């Protein structure tokens, strides 16, 4: 299978975003676990697993075209001892991924590559769901305060 160069670049950008998210979510899952917030730790462990599944599909698509995937993401360190900032970082990551996926869908459509478009639409749905969840978490945190929020995450 041949992919147009713009489509390959769109897939590679999404691969990079997913590597970054996996690394970040694993870091904060561990961090929340060490801080004694198992519900937050479990949530972000699951997010990392979801991102890994998306990444696997992206890599599979690139491999079908005999293209080596980009195997690195950006280094993003979580804020230290600031739950609200960590959630905001996760939200920024998801918003960035959604932008990449929207642009990739457009690129794939222009190239008449329905397979890539479908894959990126599926990933976009996951990003948009994560955005909604993170916005809701930040809203709850703002409304009930940090101590009450964290008391619900033990």
How does this model look, in words?
The radius of gyration is 17 Å and the shape is elongated. The protein has helices at 5-35, 38-64, 83-110, 114-144, 146-151. It starts with a helix and ends with a helix. The relative contact order is 0.17. It is mostly helical. It has one domain: Ferritin. It has 5 helices and no strands. The longest helix has 31 residues, at 5-35. The model has no long low-confidence stretch (mean pLDDT 96). Helix 1 runs antiparallel to helix 2 and helix 2 (38-64) packs antiparallel against helix 4 (114-144).
Kindly list the characteristics that best describe this protein.
154 residues; Ferritin; 0% strand
List the helices and strands and how they pair.
Elements: H1 5-35, H2 38-64, H3 83-110, H4 114-144, H5 146-151
Helix pairs in contact: 1-2, 1-3, 2-4, 3-4
Q: Can I get a quick summary?
A:
The chain has 154 residues and is mainly alpha-helical. It contains 5 helices and no strands. The chain has one domain (5-69, 78-151): Ferritin, core subunit, four-helix bundle (Ferritin, Up-down Bundle).
């Amino acid at each position: 299978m041949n992919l147009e160069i713009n489509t390959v670049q769109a897939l590679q950008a999404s691969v990079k975003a997913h590597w970054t998210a996996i690394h970040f979510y694993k870091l904060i899952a561990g961090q929340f676990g060490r801080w004694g917030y198992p519900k937050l730790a479990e949530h972000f462990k699951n997010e990392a697993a979801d991102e890994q599944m998306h990444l696997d599909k992206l890599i599979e698509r690139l491999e079908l075209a005999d293209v080596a995937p980009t195997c690195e993401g950006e280094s993003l360190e979580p804020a230290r001892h600031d739950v609200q900032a960590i959630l905001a970082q996760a939200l920024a990551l998801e918003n960035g991924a959604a932008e990449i996926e929207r642009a990739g869908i457009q690129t794939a459509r222009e190239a008449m590559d329905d397979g890539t478009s479908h894959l990126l639409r599926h990933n976009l749905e996951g990003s948009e769901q994560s955005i909604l969840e993170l916005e809701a978490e930040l809203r709850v945190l703002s409304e009930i305060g940090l101590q009450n929020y964290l008391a619900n995450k033990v």
